[in-house]
Design a protein that fits this description.
The protein is mostly beta strands. Helix content is 9%, strand content 34%. A 7-stranded mixed sheet has the order 7-5-3-2-1-14-17, with no helix packed on it. The protein has a 6-stranded mixed sheet with strand order 8-9-10-11-12-13, covered by helices on one side.
């Protein structure tokens, strides 16, 4: 499987001849939107940093709501979560999970509130191989809350996203933390490496001394494979 990161929360996933694009952004975020071709596109939050579906070619199916879908033998689950809750109102975020080939992949989008256990149980999903998690704080999860969500979902590989990096407009990037502030207790594949990473299905979870699964990092441009 090929995983590419294009900044902020935008990723392309390719496996078995199917291409998924998650959260394509508008130029207002300060970055040049990539011109990508896809079979399906997901939008977690109807905001310019996540909803530039017009930039994606190939007449893709576009999903922006909770539910269960199937496109070209890819099973998609959209889980309703929240970007922000404030004074009794709630701003929706949709976290998407994909069963594609031998992989289960999650993209948490513009998640800002830690889901409750009942929301997680709604997934009714087995082990998650790769989880893309916002970590920059401000309106999305900060590192502490990101670690909490990672602990709830227990993925084998974590890819942090939506943090401060070069090219972001001041209004977008100034309030975000750098990815290096993510807790050192979480092993991550940095999106800097995920500009092009290849992942084998056999990548194992490592166990920490307490016995809990610890997400495994993989090196830039190399497949992570089971040690012999």
């Amino acid at each position: 499987m090929d995983l590419n990161w294009y900044g902020l929360s935008c990723f392309r996933v390719r496996e078995g001849g199917v291409t998924i694009v998650c959260d394509p952004y508008d130029k207002s975020v300060g970055l040049t939107p990539p011109r990508l071709k896809a079979d399906l596109v997901t939008v977690s939050h109807d905001q310019p940093g996540h909803n530039n579906v017009e930039r994606v070619t190939g007449d893709p199916k576009v999903f922006s709501a909770p539910g269960e879908y199937e496109v070209k033998n890819v099973f998609v689950t959209g889980l309703q979560t929240y970007h922000r809750r404030h004074n009794g109102s709630a701003e929706r975020n949709v976290a998407f999970f994909f069963e594609i080939g031998d992989f289960t992949i999650g993209h948490l989008g513009d998640l800002g509130e830690v889901p409750n256990q009942s929301e997680i149980e709604e997934l009714n999903m087995g082990e998650i191989d790769i989880l893309m998690v916002p970590v920059g704080g401000s309106d999305v999860l900060d590192p502490t809350r990101a670690v909490e969500v990672i602990g709830m979902l227990e993925p084998r590989i974590v890819v942090p996203m939506h943090y401060q990096h070069a090219g972001l407009a001041g209004a977008v990037g100034d309030n975000l933390a750098d990815v290096d502030k993510v807790s050192q207790g979480v092993r991550c594949l940095s999106p800097r490496a995920a500009r092009h990473a290849q992942v084998d299905q056999d990548v194992p979870a490592r166990r920490n001394p307490g016995g809990a699964a610890q997400p495994l990092a993989i090196a830039k441009g190399h497949a992570a494979t089971k040690p012999r």
